[in-house]
Amino acid sequence: MSVHVAFTAADAAVARVGVVVDVIRASSSIAQALAAGYERVLCCGEIDEANALRAELGDEAVVGGERNGVVVPGFDVGASPREFAAGRRAPTLILSTTNGTAAILAAAARCETVLVGSLLNLSALVAAAGAAGADVAVSCAGFKGGFALDDAYCAGRIVAGLPGARSDAARAAELLAASFPGELEALQARTYGPPGLEADIAYCAQVDLLDTVPRYVGTAGPAAVIGR
Asked: What's the predicted TM-score (pTM) here?
């Protein structure tokens, strides 16, 4: 078993097990939505795809997401995990975000098994990835194709819990994670995104709040279907 970390989409590696991390906020929101009772999350790369699925599913779905950290006009909800903590509003959540949903779609094309990781479900995610007994590639969603410190930190925390040989990138992520005194300090160190996300950052910095492990289970049109 080997462990690798891809810090940006351009670095993405092929492995039997792929773990996608967009800790602020898509991967945290997906884990929280499934834990709160949503049966599935349909991850779309484009806004018009999300709207088309909402028109098709009607009252069976709500649509959420953001671009550049701002709620998409016309969507029912944004991409904050706090919005999903109170419970489901429909069986299906349709989600389209700046970075995370595209990273999930890309991983689904490369990896046999795709899991969605965050600090909220850290221990459960590590256990599921390790139990597969196969090579693991942790893919950071990043920000608009670039490096994102918060995702790299979360990737390092995941690497720290996994057995197996580490690539240099995995070792770098683990060392980066160990350099911060705590989760909140690490997530607050990011330099991208709009102001006003302080409450979401604090929420996403919680460790092991959930035991849900979101995983790719198939497709629905252009969307990747994420279930439990």
From this structure: 0.96
